[in-house]
Protein: [FeFe] hydrogenase H-cluster radical SAM maturase HydE
Amino acid sequence: MSTSVELIKEAEFSHNLNREEIVTILKDDSCNEELFQAADRVRKKYVGDEVHLRGLIEFSNICKRNCLYCGLRASNKNLDRYRLEPDEIIELAKKAVEYGYKTIVMQSGEDEFYTLDKMKYIISNIKKLDVAITLSIGEKSFEEYKAYKEAGADRYLIRIETTDKKLYEDLDPGMSHNERKRCLEDLKELGYEVGSGSLIGLPNQTLESLADDILFFKEIGADMIGLGPFIPNEDTPLKNEKGGEFTMSLKVMAITRLLMPDTNIPATTAMETISRNGRIVALQSGANVVMPNVTEGEYRKMYALYPGKACAGDTPAHCVGCITGKITSIGRSVSSTKGFRVRKKITT
Ligand code: SAH
Ligand code: SF4
Structure:
């Protein structure tokens, strides 16, 4: 059995690890720096030094689901709810384009106010701005995904959250793991760039199951993989749980980079929330994307998936300057392209 350092060295070039090998690395904290540096080199070799910024619009915090970890869950009565009108969303997108964003990410709870016609109206109008459009609005039918695509959507983010079916179904009452997978398959079939990801540090989540998550992303050929710690929210049934750790989240992300060299990996806001400068550390450990918030005013605070969300008190104009400054300070640059995944020949 190889040691963790040997496994990391090999995986930097083979881009392969099995479940047991991933667990060995996750368990062993003695070679974290080697892991992060190897992931950083793979990132540089395959996706380069450019960081893609995606402007995130959180357009509604109303959700019909009840995920136990999430502050937007329908049963949370301690949250003031909001939803933006279609034209308000389009206006925010216009401002985001003025700030220089080349991708608009539209995220919300599962809010039935946004009918297919409303979504088609929003998507087609934002598309006129010559940007890539990413949706992150949950589980929909094949027909709905198809209609969004035809209206101009390019990408879709839907995290598997965990590949442990039982854990998923315990934490997401009324939801089915097979249905979540069906969504990912439909999106792929429709030609979207597909993003998935998971929460790190869920109650009863094992290292083996985190290894399965990484292998799952590889198996489905995910184009984007968002990973972040689970952060307990006071207003949810998981309020007394411990939550995920920064180092473990970073390790899962770095191993994901080793195995999927040319995929797009964001340095997530949840990482920044539990560790100051967490996004920059993530950018130096395998990540190549940041999704700054372009939601305005009070709504930023009201989109409370978890507490203490980084940058919730800032303005969109501040965020773009702040993150650009940080990116250039570590010798990287902000991309001026739409930042689609560029498939590279994997050299071993
Ligand atoms: N409703 C859509 C999109 C919004 S939720 C969906 O569920 O797909 C976006 C992501 O926020 C979820 O996928 C989940 O991984 C993350 N999230 C929710 N609650 C969280 C918490 N307490 N800590 C960290 N991330 C959380
Ligand atoms: Fe709704 Fe998404 Fe939160 Fe689940 S994770 S409650 S679907 S917003």
About this structure: Residues 32-47 form the longest helix (16 residues). Strands lie at 50-53, 55-60, 103-108, 132-136, 155-157, 193-200, 224-229, 289-290, 333-334. Residues 69-70, 107, 109-110, 136, 138, 158-159, 161, 199, 228, 230-231, 233, 270, 305-306 surround S-adenosyl-L-homocysteine (ligand 1) (CB under 6 Å).
